[in-house]
Amino acid sequence: MKLTRKLVLAKAKASDLDSVKKLNCWGCNLTDISIFSQMPNIEVLTLSVNSISSLSPLADCLSLCELYLRRNMIPSLSELSHLRPLTRLRVLWLAENPCCGSDPSQYRLTVLRCLPRLQKLDNQVVTEDEIAMALMEGEEVTTPPGTVQNQLSTNGHPDAETENDPLNYNMEETNKIREELGMKPLSRDKFPSLSSPSTRETRLSMKKTHIVDAVLLLLRDLDEEELLVVHTATQNRLQTYTLDSGDTLHSGDTLHTQKAADIQH
């Protein structure tokens, strides 16, 4: 069944689509929700217990804060790529869809890696520890092939930067954290292209990037004493690199002593 303009206005008791901010279409046997491409002001949307398989019409609902999709026919978590531009989205209920798979833990980490701004997923509060773990262990969600092709046909530039490009999104998130901590932002070349063939080196580079993201997130929660422990461990780790570069043991000991003195002060 297709959700029509007439049905939306009747359910929302509104005169036009732009004025609709909340809509409940629970159990309406919906398969086509293309109407939402014309509803940029929707904030709370209930679509549970339907037969929806694609989330692409929601990509332009930039005001969306809460989205309920429990018990639909969403086949793959790649559909979540359409929700990346929705920077206000804080609540998502996606349980009981085919895309959830048989591993609840991995499913949750993958969703949170794709949408780290979520505050509640499947009626369960999201913690900062979960976000940090998701950045390291969640699977990368890529845009469905059909959508990528449509973007290339529309833009004519395969490398064109768009708001919902997963690569740009990760850069934005990471550099925001780095800016808050007084660090220099990373350039685009630090992020391996998602369109490049997946090699061992590429995967290793991506893993290291996400580890850095997780560390930066965790630093926010540490107090002064805990930060001092991290600082000391970091300095010791840096000393190892110095020694490996050819410095003598004596100079390394001197460096360690000086750094320990600096930490105490």
From TrEMBL:
It comes from the Eukaryota. The keyword tRNA processing does not apply. It holds the Pfam family LRR_4. GO terms for cellular component: ciliary basal body; photoreceptor cell cilium; U4/U6 x U5 tri-snRNP complex. One of its GO terms (biological process) is mRNA splicing, via spliceosome. Keywords: Cell projection, Cilium, Flagellum, Leucine-rich repeat, Repeat. SUPFAM superfamilies: L domain-like (SSF52058). Residues 245-265 are annotated as: Disordered. Transmembrane segments: none annotated. Residues 104-122 form the U2A'/phosphoprotein 32 family A C-terminal domain. The keyword Repeat applies. InterPro entries: HIND, Leu-rich_rpt, Leu-rich_rpt_4, LRR_dom_sf, U2A'_phosphoprotein32A_C. Plays a role in cilia formation and/or maintenance. Plays a role in the regulation of cell morphology and cytoskeletal organization. Involved in DNA damage repair. This is Cilia- and flagella-associated protein 410. It comes from Scomber scombrus (Atlantic mackerel).
